[in-house]
Predict the 3D structure of the following.
Amino acid sequence: LSLASIKPQSIILLGIFLVAARRWRAILSVAVVGIFFFSVTGLMFGWNIWVDFARVIREVAQLSGKYGIYPKEMYNFRGVLASVLGDDAAEIVSAISLAAFLITILGVLWLWKTSWQKQTDLKFALTICLGLLFNLHLNPQDSLLLVIPAVLFYDTLRQRGLPRQQYAAFALSIPLVFILSEFSIRGSLIIRVPIILLTILTIWIAKTLWDERNYDQS
């Protein structure tokens, strides 16, 4: 998490998960390494750099069509909104995206505070998927993080003896579908294909988590 803080918007939900799951040793480790990076950076470039960093992060969240920030290109909920509502609704898109992200944070807090102790791997995979789907910024290259929940989910199905052939075919097809969609039908659909695939994976993991919870309770 400390190393990934170079792009903090990608790890917010993982930090929330640590707090909600009470992983205090991990939180302490992140804090120690984070303070080290914070101090070294401040000593090298001046402490005001952190004030500027916070300002830039706030401004970037509102940008559209500048400095490489193109919401329509994003593989997330914000990308869907931008494609549906258009360029003239940039402020509305940013506001709705932020609201959805805050709701997602509350959802992750609830998810990890429940008593689903036997589904830790599924909850972690779902947390990452939600973080990708509702992140304020998810450029095409960031979707590489999708590998983590995809592999975790398959491993969970395998360990628990659950049917996995259909999921394996789906997961293995994702890279090819991503590439084909970018070079063939890109821009011809309102909702881009990678967003649909990410949504399917998120729902699939969530349903499996719910079914496993009900099975364990029974």
Summary: The chain has a mean pLDDT of 84. The radius of gyration is 19 Å.
